[in-house]
Amino acid sequence: MCNYTLEGIVRYLVLLIGLVLALAGLQTAFAESKERPRCENCGMFTDISSTHSLASITLNGKTSEHSFVCLECVFNKLEEWGDKATLKSIKVLDYDTAAAKERKYLEVSKAWFLYDTSKLKGSMPVYTAAFSSKKAAEAARKELGGTLMQWTELKPKLLPAGH
User: Fold this and answer.
1) Local structure of residue 82 (DSSP, 8 states)
2) Per-residue pLDDT tens for 51-79?
3) d(Cα 150, Cα 126) in Å, to the nearest integer?
4) Can you name the residues that pair with 150 across neighbouring β-strands?
5) Domain range summary for the chain, segments of one domain joined by +
């Protein structure tokens, strides 16, 4: 004979249901985080990055677009891939559209940059914001700080030592 009380069985069932719901919630949370786009270098979410960069890279003979939270991550990943990868082009998020529904991207050669700014949302140091014009970068500099420069000045700062 079993000495189970109705109260004991109810407690057990409530505990079991709670555990199942908690595990289901964790599974849903992990599934949702995997569905969001992530940086191919550091794993941060690119959809909230105010410095999102898209790089066209030939890797092992195949060219495709790769997504990174910042320019620093682009060059860190290229260094990791070594001779297997060739950079074709980079587009950077216009900082002024980072919070907009319609984000706009700029060719790096046409953008103006604020290098080594204050912390930027969803980015990695050294914080670098891109702008569509010198005027826009200068206006943002009052709030963000940083050094104003164009791509030809910025690129050597991002390249790994010895390149």
Assistant:
1) G
2) 999 999 999 999 999 999 999 999 999 99
3) 16
4) 112
5) 1-35, 53-158
